[in-house]
Amino acid sequence: MPDNIKNNKRTDDFNKVKKNFKKLLFRMKSTKTWIFIFFVGLLAAVMIIVENVSYYFFQKNLIEIEMAQLQTSAAVMSGEFSSYASFSEAEKNGVYERMRRYSAMNSVRIRVIDERFVIVSDSYLVEYGRNIINSNVINSFTTGKSISFYDRKNTNIEVAVPINGTDGSILGVLVVSKDLDEVYKNSVNDNIFTVMVAVTAVAVILVLLFERGIGKSYRKAYKIVEDVANGHTDKRIPVKGSYELRLFAKDFNNIMDRAGMLDESRQEFVSNVSHELKTPITSIKVLADSLNMQDDVPIELYKEFMQDITNEIDRESKIIEDLLSLVKMDKSAAVMNISSVNVNEMLEIVLKRLKPIAQKKNVELLFESFRPVVAEIDEVKFTLVISNLVENAIKYNVSDGWVHVSLNADYQYFYVRVEDSGIGIPKESQDLVFDRFYRVDKARSRQTGGTGLGLAIVQNIVLLHHGTIKLHSEEGTGTTFTVRIPLNYVG
């Protein structure tokens, strides 16, 4: 096979492996896969706990049962010696033989120990004739009572029962012992297996129920998200199901509601822009047509119409200028030129520039500073904030009114307060004055040259400085704007 064909085949194989690996990664990331992994891990942990707990309780129960049976058997076998005066007499009458048969049938070891603590009979035939020094044997011989003992290390049960002769004297001790290792393997393990099967079955049922209930809710939520992604933006996820799903539904619905409001706001903004830009052009066209339709227009009328046209052009220019400023103030695009600025001096300069406008309207312009303030701000942009607020306070004031500007600060913020004795803002309009193109009195705004964009620009600049602006106003009394800006800018 040519090398280039081999290389192409190797590349195709690699791409297939990579594609399959990506699919595997996608499945690993899916909620369903993680839920399955969680339940498998939980099931494994539960099974380990159940196995250990079950083993303990089954073992404890089995020991108690086997101990009781062994005690009964030992007492019965010890009773066979009561008819004989000695061990040799009992042996002649087949007692030892019967005990060996019982030992073989029941997997127990039986030993007979005389008063010298010598083993005179062993059903396993391994310790015959040896001495045994055993605390259980000694206690049983001296007290004349049955002694039971469980050796946990060797899993062995031992019962020591005193042997009484025909005269009631203690001839020795009968020791019956049983190894539980094989019993555990057969009995305990069988019971644990049964419990584990039951637990596994219950766990599988719970997983299926969980997947059917919770998984169904997640699938529905995903379907709605998919529909929204395909353009059905009016759909919302029902706020129900698990705690996490309810939180997700609330956040998703809030995001979609805000997006809907933003779309409506954009559409309204475009409509307002179109209307505001069209109005001066319409006026210009009407004035120009009026001139064109008249013959021998007097120079005075001609000058008057041209002045009106110039005013409309200035108005159009002002709208475009404010729109460009608003675009520049957009938080995602704005560039902040932050520097350390003497705010006292900056305010004095702005107010000095606006003083002629105030004098023209016979409005008294006052400035009060409570302390020197140096802050990290964008001087050009913040100058626009003060200019807009003070200029509005002058324009919408009453004759012989006043505008009071004050500056104060604490350890974290500085505060600029612009208060006037003007006409005030109606209560129903106070939440709308920062909206683009909103005017409280449209006729008066046009007369004063307002575009309805000034306060929107002010709010954007304040937000860019991580500050706040608050409004308090009463009709016929006046309006107060309070601006709070951090002394140290944090980008």
TrEMBL record:
Residues 272-489 form the Histidine kinase domain. It is an enzyme of class 2 (transferase). Gene3D superfamilies: 1.10.287.130, 6.10.340.10, Histidine kinase-like ATPase, C-terminal domain (3.30.565.10). The keyword Phosphoprotein applies. SMART domains: HATPase_c, HisKA. It is found in: Cell membrane. InterPro entries: BphY/WalK/GraS-like (IPR050351), HAMP_dom (IPR003660), HATPase_C_sf (IPR036890), HATPase_dom (IPR003594), His_kinase_dom (IPR005467), HisK_dim/P_dom (IPR003661), HisK_dim/P_sf (IPR036097), Sensor-like_sf (IPR029151). Pfam families: HATPase_c (PF02518), HisKA (PF00512). The chain crosses the membrane at residues 33-58, 192-210. It comes from the Bacteria. Its EC number is 2.7.13.3. PROSITE patterns: HAMP, HIS_KIN. Its main location: membrane. Keywords: Cell membrane, Kinase, Membrane, Phosphoprotein, Transferase, Transmembrane, Transmembrane helix, Two-component regulatory system. SUPFAM superfamilies: ATPase domain of HSP90 chaperone/DNA topoisomerase II/histidine kinase, Homodimeric domain of signal transducing histidine kinase, Sensory domain-like. One of its GO terms (molecular function) is kinase activity. Residues 212-264 form the HAMP domain. It is a multi-pass membrane protein. It catalyses: ATP + protein L-histidine = ADP + protein N-phospho-L-histidine. This is histidine kinase. It comes from Lachnospira intestinalis.
